[in-house]
Design brief:
- The chain has seven helices and five strands.
- The chain is an alpha+beta fold.
- The protein has a five-stranded mixed beta sheet.
- The radius of gyration is 18 Å and the shape is globular.
């Protein structure tokens, strides 16, 4: 995922993220895979990136008020970058998810479980700096992301939302594609 670090905003966020002192904090999602797609498309690494997402996990305070306070701190810390930040406590996802998506969500146990639930599996990626090294979390691997295959997440079935995301991504990077359909199983044989 060295390619994601070619985006100067990603580098700056990873370098200074520890200053927020958030438990289990990760830079996740679009700012990472979209940087890779921009580079593969021959564009500037930060072209069209709408926001930069940070996940953390704090089970001690599940309030919206606390999460908003963290967002304000992050906006102040990274104000010089001129980017839209979205900082979310993954410990509280189950408190708002049913009202927003119309279906339940299990209590997550760490920030990476939030990455596990991205609608497009090939975009499920997170980075963090740990002991001076960049740690990559990619539960479905990175191959499909680099090949431009917009595979559905096998753990989260949100068909219409997945379709919406795929159309949005393909409108911006027209070379992206859905996975090839699985061939039908061979005709069953008589037993």
């Amino acid at each position: 995922m060295q390619d994601a670090l070619r985006n100067p905003c990603n580098r700056a966020l990873l370098e200074r993220l520890p200053e927020l002192d958030l438990p289990d904090a990760w830079l996740v999602g679009g700012c990472l895979f979209q940087t890779v797609w921009n580079l593969l498309d021959g564009c500037s690494p930060d072209t069209g990136i709408r926001d930069y997402d940070i996940f953390y996990f704090d089970p001690k305070d599940l309030s919206d008020h606390s999460e908003q306070a963290v967002n304000r701190r992050a906006q102040a810390l990274f104000s010089g970058l001129g980017v839209q930040l979205d900082v979310r406590n993954q410990a509280r996802v189950h408190t708002w998810y049913p009202a927003y998506f119309g279906r339940p969500c299990p209590r997550l146990q760490n920030a990476c479980e939030g990455v596990d639930r991205f609608l497009v599996g090939s975009t499920s990626v997170g980075l963090r700096r740990e002991a001076g090294h960049i740690q990559v979390y990619a539960p479905y691997g990175l191959d499909d992301m680099y090949r431009g295959i917009l595979s559905p997440n096998p753990r989260v079935d949100h068909g219409p939302l997945y379709d919406h995301k795929v159309r949005d991504y393909q409108a911006r990077w027209n070379w992206l594609r859905r996975p090839e359909p699985m061939p039908l199983a061979a005709a069953s044989q008589d037993l």
